Amino acid sequence: MAINPYSTQCIDTDDLKAVQQALQGAHLAQGPLVEKFERALADYLGVKHVVVCTNATSALFMLYQALDLAHSKAITTPLSFVATTNMLLATKATPIFCDIGQDGNIDPALLENCLQEGVKAVVSVDYGGASVDIPAIKAFCARHGLLFISDSSHAFGGAYAGVKIGALADASVFSFHAIKSITTAEGGAVATNDHALYQRLKLLISHGVEKDGWDTQVQTLGFNFRMNELQAALGLSQLKKVDTFIAKREEIACLYDNLFKDNPYFTCLHAKLSPKVKSANHLYPILLKPFLWGRKTQILDALLQAQMGVQVHYKPIHTFKLYENLLGKQSLPKAESFYKAEISLPCHQKMSLALAKHTAQTLLEILGGF
Ligand SMILES: *Cc1c(COP(=O)(O)O)cnc(C)c1O
């Protein structure tokens, strides 16, 4: 048996056909499929505008630039993939780390403590695919005149109180990396209802070039972070299946919740979600109880040996050398404990319920030996 990864793509014959057709089309780049994909994404999310690009990292970079975050500060979470804040640094903006709550998301109760001169935005992350506390963050941003930016790279297809993630913040970023909800191999997007922001993003991802008939003009320094037609074709085909993918992940997550109920070793984030949150279940995180933290490396090794492709999400960003050197050593005790406790179990649309059951049993057996 091969290692069962914590997340993986699901490609079927429809996807192959779509990419092959695009490959045989008149345009491989800057053709009609990219705009068609953007329209389809906007309709699915219930937002006015979507800009797609090469990946979520470039989407974040362009968004921070389009919102003029240079030389400002953004309150953000230490529990994310490092791209969320690396792109703040690339924009010459300073991340202010706010500690997390028990769900792994930025804790709204701690936001006020992070306020300081120069803060212009909150950049939150929907950890594991589960939305942040939307009303609390919105109220905080409204109170202080801040932008609400959501790195929703884990959460495409998720919802909060019946509204799709992507339609809740001032701007939301998604990733279509291979292992995210749907994939374009590599790919990213920004969703927003702000028309001016949309136009600025369109310019930034394509050299800053404006066309007026035969004439062109460049007023803004732009890049080339455009998605290509093959990726858009794959994205259009994948988008048709997103709700089935998410339903499958939810089925596995619920099975796990049940099989792990009252176990003595760990708690499950999914089992404790607010009824308002419909997670995209990019991750199925468990939190080991403190008596096991000291043996986590051995536990991870044993799980890998048993063909479980477990991972740890995430080493808190403020503890990385780059960030310590730039911002000084900081203490964010909840994020640091979370890191000691967390393991992401395999949970994806290609997994059978039988394999999920086997995975759960194996995990419990292995932990019984520690
Ligand atoms: C995956 C991910 C990214 C980066 O996405 P890419 O498309 O690989 O650039 C950024 N932020 C978060 C939270 C992610 O999980």
From TrEMBL:
Tell me its family.
Belongs to the DegT/DnrJ/EryC1 family.
Give the matching NCBIfam families. PseC
A UniProt-annotated Pfam family? DegT_DnrJ_EryC1
Q: What is the protein name given in its UniProt record?
A: UDP-4-amino-4,6-dideoxy-N-acetyl-beta-L-altrosamine transaminase
Enzyme Commission code: 2.6.1.92
Q: Which UniProt keywords apply?
A: Pyridoxal phosphate
